[in-house]
Design a protein that fits this description.
The chain is of the alpha/beta class and about 400 residues long. The chain contains 7 helices and 26 strands.
Length: about 400
Amino acid sequence: MAGLMPLIDAQNILLNSARKLDSEIVKITDSLGRITARDICAKRSQPAANMSSMDGYAICYDANITSWDVVGECKAGTTPCDTIISGQAARIFTGALLPEGADTIIIQENITIDGSRASLKPNCTMNKGQHIRREGNDFAQHETIIKAGETITAAKIGLLIAAGHDHISVYKKPQVAIISTGDELREIGDMCEPHQIPASNGPMIAAMLNDCEIVYNKIVKDDLLGITQAIRNNDHCDIIITIGGASVGDHDLIVPALRNLKANINFMKAAIKPGKPILTGKIGDAIIVGLPGNPASAYVTAILFLLPLTGYIMGKNSYMPIEKNAQLNHELPAIQERAEFLRAKVVGHNIMPYTGQDSAKISTLSESNALLIRPSNSPNIATGAMVKYIEI
């Protein structure tokens, strides 16, 4: 099949045409899902000093002493109580700072109290240093706690705040325009005649790019002037996605529109199934990604091209699809030049490709949790063989 770009070459061409976005400073509370632009170090240690991990009694450990005079009380949120010496104890609560001289905590369940005298219960043991959270045990001041290129999660927000941060540097969100083309397309909720279909691809792709800023997501008729204008009006975006019309039929107008705008087209077909009619290029600084119009084709090409692209320009450390292994539950025939990505279901360690792989079937896509990978020119694969897949 002349003119088909091998997948890895097509991906490399796309990513090599891109550049990472600039960074910006955001509040920690607004950083969920953002990508760190630089390494972040702790401004303080956690704990900031030695403290108790249990309610009990702080002592200066001596294996020969099992009874102590209680001379103070240490509570969380207060400065430490007075220094203690051998033979003395301080009542202490979880999270309280350890007083000077203390090096061990005995939990309250192992102590009997008689007036101001605390004694270790019979058959209870104690070990030097027990039940103490050491200064810097969680993280130390100046320690790198988050690397550049990591995604901020809820737990990382907690870590950053505990480490003394209120703002961080993250990569900007890509501004993305989505242009769905086709006279047959209708808006969400509109009544459709038999020759019409709801425009599901635009919202589906937008949902896949929920870490981007979607600034335009509209239907454009199969009209060269209208498509050209829609692309021109969005050339300030980082990425312009067109859906449908990227093939070579009489009503496929994406390529003519891009040529009208003097855009650079990198390639127009890839050796993959589904998704052969995909194109990428640039108009000014905006990257063009032309996805096929069939839902499964649009989804698969978004997995293989769009998500790596947005991940790369947002500065993610890992942006290519992660491949996993599973055991095939039935035989697959040999294939030729086009690599295949079969919609499939992974259950446990087994993978089952669906029999209906028509690229227009969105029901199969919605039931799938994996794309079974068949590299180009793959031979027949027997039942029980290990195969690779991408989790979706």
